[in-house]
Amino acid sequence: MAAPAPKQEELQPHAVKDQLPAVSYCLTSPPPWPEAILLGFQHYLVMLGTTIIIPTALVPQMGGGNKFLRIMRGTQGALIVASTLQIIMGFSGLWRIVVRLLSPLSAAPLVALVGFGLYELGFPSVAKCVEIGLPEILLLVALSQYIPHMVPLLGTAFERFAIIMSVAVVWLYAFFLTVGGAYKNAAPKTQFHCRTDRSGLVGGAPWISVPYPFQWGAPTFDAGEAFAMMAASFVALVESTGGFIAVSRYASATPCPPSIMSRGIGWQGVGILLDGLFGTANGSSVSVENAGLLGLTRVGSRRVVQISAGFMIFFSILGKFGAVFASIPTPVIAAIYCLLFAYVGMAGIGFLQFCNLNSFRTKFILGFSLFMGLSVPQYFNEYTSVAGFGPVHTRSRWFNDMINVVFSSKAFVGGAVAFFLDNTLHRRDGTARKDRGHHFWDRFRSFKTDPRSEEFYSLPFNLNKFFPSF
Fold it and tell me: Which residues form the signal peptide (predicted)?
């Protein structure tokens, strides 16, 4: 008689992980100094794209001469006022109360839309000069995902420095196209997006430029502008919360305690205050692309980011050197965004491992919040592009700006819908708490509950004494 067939091994679902296990260097474990310096420079390159895109879009709309100065002075005043919102909500602990109500289910759409919601800055910008943008995407994917498995001995180098390598190659390629006359007779828009010598960036930049407070003159204060900027500040507060959650995930830290999240928002408010004092024309928020870079490199070290900040300060003072790197064509930066924003979006989707995806309550909250987070801002943006003003168009301009700004943010709309539904729908149902994954995060609700919080989130130089985590 034949022996019975061996019993097929029963498949088991993947285990839930509080921390990502494949991260090479977590928040508190720095890589060797040479590697850390290169990684820090890579963070600087990634950040540079957004730094150039914002003034490139804003400054032409301000005009030149006294018009420009008037707008800058008004923007300075609005930023100074708006900074108080985050400073008060953060350092007072008010935002901690809100964050404590976040569950993995409500955090998933918020974090996902922080990344995926920036899709218009990806391939649409790549396509503005597809002959250099598309090669950057293909080369970056090949260097970071395929070559490390084909060349195991050098796999780590390709994986961690794929952006530096790919940008260097494609930037050189774009330079040869520029000096070779490929865009000599091209349309002005094509030349602007493709050339490496556009707008006289290097020639017009000073060798040394030290920023100082009120460099555009004394700030002016207008109630309408201040209220509109406060609305933008509140949107940045919500989006930054999603960014903080993604960063803690990719740095292989434990889920960020609400008190730490609130403290971070307070410090971000201080950053916005400095923006207003120094006249940067825009406020501060979490850098989504740098958060995605943590996932791409699998290095979440705090030291690397500190080194990156040093590069930012250094090249901001030495204008010529900073202008050289700023000459990287925008489609190359947009190609990088296609990967980095995707990583941040997937950090949000990853929180669904804590939830019961077989629950119809979960399916409704997740699907409806994601859909509305994409659909509502699309309506506001389409309406504005056609009519020249937002759907909310009353006689009060500051009120119009407040509402239109808030509902144009995909992360805010999707996160707000998920937060409201998750905390009100079937709240008394005993299974809802488990389905939404809230019990997985219970032990991280207080700074002192989990011993790992001290390692990851304590401030240096005994600053916890002055900025405690309650």
Answer: none
| Residue 403 C-alpha from the chain's centroid | 22
Does the pLDDT value for residue 58 go beyond 90? no
User: Helix 330-350 to helix 288-297 angle, to the nearest 10 degrees?
Assistant: 70
Task: Look at residue 18 and tell me if it is in a domain.
Answer: no
- Is it the case that residue 64 has pLDDT exceeding 70? no
Q: Does 20 fall in a domain?
A: no
Beta bridge partners of 25: 299
* Closest to 173 measured CA to CA, from 328, 325, 50, 38: 328
Instruction: Identify which has the larger pLDDT, 419 or 388.
Output: 419
Q: 145: exposed, middle or buried (C-beta count within 10 Å: 0-12, 13-18, 19+)?
A: middle
Mean pLDDT of 287-291: 95
**Apex 256 CA angle, 250 and 260, nearest 5:** 130
Give 343-383 pLDDT, tens digit per residue: 999 999 999 999 999 999 999 999 999 999 999 999 999 99
Number of domains in the chain: 1
Let me know if residue 14 belongs to a domain: no
Segments forming the whole domain that contains residue 176? 33-465
The SS3 of residue 264 is helix
In a domain, 21, yes or no: no
DSSP 8-state class, residue 208: -
Q: Give 376's contacts (C-beta < 8 A, 6+ positions apart).
A: 407, 413
Burial (CB < 10 A; 0-12, 13-18, 19+), residue 62, is middle
Alpha-carbon distance 242 to 234, whole Å?
A: 13
Is the entire prediction scored with pTM above 0.85? yes
Distance, in Å, from the CA atom of 45 to the CA atom of 57, rounded to the nearest integer, reads 19
Question: Do 53 and 330 contact (CB within 8 A), yes or no?
Answer: yes
What pLDDT digit, counting tens, does each position of 235-267 carry? 999 999 999 999 999 999 999 999 999 999 999
Dihedral sign for Cα 182, 187, 188, 194, please.
negative
